[in-house]
């Protein structure tokens, strides 16, 4: 991990793998268990989910689960201290990329709290900082037109256009691009 170096969230995506968030239903399903070639304790994972933790899994193109990451929450502290890796990829460099992406997800959850801290495999993750790259003008225009047309039919006048304009502004702000970096303080 490089500190103070900006990156985009989509740069963490891994070609050939999809990351999924695993819920209670999936943990309990026989299909999910049959997609893994390693053992895991479903009761342990359900316990984590019941305590506001998250379970992430990486699935390859053949729909096989290659890794499971268990993240927990305790107050304003988030951590990933447990990961299950398929023997087929245990020595593959792709595991490092998976670690980076899950580390980002854990650090991102911690940013929503004033005293939020994040840990990954026993080490504290530096504070994750977000940098907005401004307003998405294209999305503003698209949603303004879309919502104006929709509300024009309801209100038959300038009120519909005003509502469309306001909705367009909010969508332009919501869909703005962001970059991130880990702030290393000495």
Keywords for this structure?
186 residues; two-stranded antiparallel sheet; globular; 6 helices; single chain; six-stranded mixed β-sheet; Aminopeptidase
* Structural class determined from secondary elements: alpha+beta
Strand order of the largest sheet: 1-2-3-4-5-6
Rg (CA only): 21 Å
- Name the shape in a single word: globular
**Low-confidence parts:** none
CATH topology of the largest domain: the name is Aminopeptidase
Beta content comes to 25-35%
Give the overall average pLDDT: 88
Helix and strand element order: EHHHEEEHEEEHHE
How many β strands by DSSP?
8
Written account of the structure:
This protein has 186 residues and is of the alpha+beta class. The longest helix is centred in the last third of the chain and has 19 residues, at 137-155. It starts with 16 loop residues before the first strand and ends with a strand. The strands form 2 sheets. Strands 1-2-3-4-5-6 form a 6-stranded mixed β-sheet, with helices on both faces. Strands 7-8 form a two-stranded antiparallel sheet. It has 2 domains: 9-125, Aminopeptidase; 137-183, no CATH class. Helix 4 (94-110) links the parallel strand 4 and strand 5 (117-120). The chain has 6 helices and 8 strands. Helix 5 (137-155) packs antiparallel against helix 6. The mean pLDDT is 88. It has helices at residues 24-28, 30-34, 42-50, 94-110, 137-155, 158-174, and strands spanning 17-22, 54-60, 65-74, 77-85, 117-120, 123-125, 127-132, 178-183.
């Amino acid at each position: 991990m490089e500190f103070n170096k900006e990156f985009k969230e989509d740069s963490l995506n891994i070609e050939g793998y999809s990351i999924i968030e695993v819920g209670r239903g999936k943990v309990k399903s026989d299909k999910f268990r049959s997609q893994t070639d390693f053992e895991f304790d479903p009761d342990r994972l359900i316990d984590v989910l019941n305590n506001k933790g998250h379970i992430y899994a990486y699935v390859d193109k053949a729909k096989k689960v290659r890794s499971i990451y268990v993240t927990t929450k305790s107050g304003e502290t988030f951590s990933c201290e447990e990961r299950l890796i398929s023997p087929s990829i245990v020595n593959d460099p792709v595991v490092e990329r998976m670690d980076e992406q899950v580390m980002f997800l854990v650090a991102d959850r911690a940013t929503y709290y004033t005293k939020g801290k994040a840990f990954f495999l026993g080490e504290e993750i530096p504070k994750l900082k977000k940098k907005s790259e401004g307003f998405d003008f294209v999305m503003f225009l698209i949603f303004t037109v879309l919502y104006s047309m929709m509300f024009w039919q309801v209100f038959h006048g300038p009120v519909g256009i005003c509502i469309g304009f306001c909705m367009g502004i909010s969508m332009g702000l919501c869909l703005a691009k962001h970059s991130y970096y880990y702030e290393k303080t000495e």
